[in-house]
Known about the structure:
The complex is a heterodimer of chains A (245) and B (365).
Chain A: H1 2-16, H2 20-53, H3 59-69, H4 74-85, H5 100-124, H6 128-136, H7 141-151, H8 153-169, H9 172-178, E1 182-187, E2 190-195, H10 200-210, H11 213-244
Antiparallel strand pairs in A: 1-2
Helix pairs in contact in A: 1-11, 2-5, 2-8, 3-5, 4-5, 4-9, 5-8, 5-9, 6-7, 8-11, 10-11
Chain B: E1 4-15, E2 18-29, E3 33-37, H1 44-51, E4 59-64, E5 67-68, H2 74-81, E6 84-87, H3 98-108, H4 113-126, H5 142-154, E7 160-164, H6 172-187, E8 191-196, H7 199-205, E9 208-213, E10 216-221, H8 223-228, H9 233-238, E11 243-252, E12 256-261, E13 264-269, E14 278-283, E15 288-291, E16 304-315, E17 319-326, E18 329-336, H10 337-342, E19 350-355, E20 361-363
Parallel strand pairs in B: 3-8, 3-9, 6-7, 7-8
Antiparallel strand pairs in B: 1-2, 1-4, 4-5, 9-10, 11-12, 11-14, 12-13, 14-20, 15-19, 16-17, 16-19, 17-18
Amino acid sequence: MEYLVEGILRAVTLILTLDPYVISVAKVQIIVSTSAVILASATAVPIAVLFSFRNFPFKNFLLTLINTGMGLPPVVVGLVVFVFFMRRGPLGFLDLVYTREIMVIAQYLLAFPIILGVSIAAINAVPKSIRETAYTLGARDREVALVVIKEAAFGIITGILAGAGRVFAEVGAILTVGGNIAYDIATPEGIIHVSKTRTLSTAIPLETSQGDIAAAIAFGLILLTITFILNLLVSFLRRRASIEA
Amino acid sequence: MRRSIVRLENISKHFSGREVLSRINLEIREGELLTLLGPSGAGKTTLMRIINLFTKPSEGKLYFRDREVTRLSGDALLEVRRSMVMVFQKPVMFSGSVFDNVAYGLRIRGYSRAEIERRVKEALRLVGLEGYEERNARTLSGGEAQRVAFARAVVIQPELLLLDEPTTSLDPISEARVHSIIRKIKELGISVVLTTHKQHEAIALGDRVAVLKDGKLQQVGTPQEVIYTPKTRFVAEFTGMVNIYDGVVEEVGSTHCTVRVGEVALMMHAFEASRGERICIGIRPEEVMLLRTDVPLNPRHKNVLTGVVSEISPQGSAMLRLRIASGGFEVSADVPRHVAEKMSIRKGGEVLFSLKTSCLRRLEE
Lengths: 245, 365
């Protein structure tokens, strides 16, 4: 038990003293995952509106694909992205393997179907009469869509948070495409470890296997805090949404 | 004659093979309140949705201010749409405040903040909800939400306001309040089309009444015309003409015709028919005239019959409805309570009554 208490104490110290390595790992995670969620939201929400407002061929088939996408194993997504971007792959010329950019791409693919699927459900749940009221009051299509998005806002934000929850928690995709790389730099205070593509979730198994339990616990605590805040937001919005309804 | 705002020309609408509207010709005139009366399923809402350009008709043409709008799109469509607004049977509120709801139509039209505030205030006063601006629209009662929906529509100052069954789910007191709001809206010069299945409402509010049944217009006319000269058996029944008979034309004269209903021959004002033709005739219950038996019969009374009162039931608060049997011929007559008392009318008693020639009307099937 002693090692556990010691590990937790050392982990807290690492966080509170803003240990450069821990901070750099957390930063990479936050930059990569937040970028992926922002990009996925910016594309998924407009597409969700199109899905609910327009009819087109294979719509139901596409919906099934989206629902499948919501449950894709992250490591498989990582593999597919890797295959596309590896040196010999069709997008190999972009030279993105083991960069933060490719990690954003992989996480984007994980977040996108969730945000899209939940947003479509939220927009479809807005009563048709809301659309018709906006329409009869003289709204253009774009203005009707805005009204509907506003009415579905809680659901859409819940979808975005669910997407965020997924990308912050996954290991497989960013590990496969990002490579979990950190490097050493020399500073006047000595050599420090800095993350290039190492994130909280990929650092934990590595540090654990290398026996640095304290660092692993520190990463775990930060990750836990982030997911806890995300879930707090989701449940808060759920409550608000049910009060509204 | 007032200018027309909307004109429907041979409008038909099919939904998957079923004909919901059939060759509707109708004109809505500037400043008038037209009530669209019909039972549920008659096609009233579909007609409103066609006028509001929600739905395209399967056949026929729709004109707005003498311009064909049936197949408009883009900005031209938007311009026409923005001249009219519909209030649905069950209005929904956008999330946000009452102010946000009422201001919506003005905001998307790009009005200034000051103008929006002024107009919203005015609209809320019109519907008796002044001071409700900051209330959460989702916490309003059904009646309040309905009035906000009225304000939200009127604030735009549309040329045409479409009200789809605005009182169907209201209690009589709320209904009366909505009626008074509708009258105020009409005074603003806004033309109104209102659908209803209540004949009393159609008649009380409408400058003209259009009666719709099974997607077909039965009659369009003033309340007076629809009540007293219904064209079809349906209109007659729907507007309370309870005495309707099948008869055979017996004599066709230049001033009068005679129609036989069972054992009774009734004299009517002349109409075009041939002898032996089977027709349908009717008379409203309040037009059946009870005659005094203690004075000599005036010869100008025609169709005078004696009968026995078989049933007495209250009709509203001040009237009684008598069911009178004259042999095989039966008729319902509405008389004021005090008259019935003065004439000491009682169940089983004998009465003398007359069916005025001018009140008997021929009805189309």
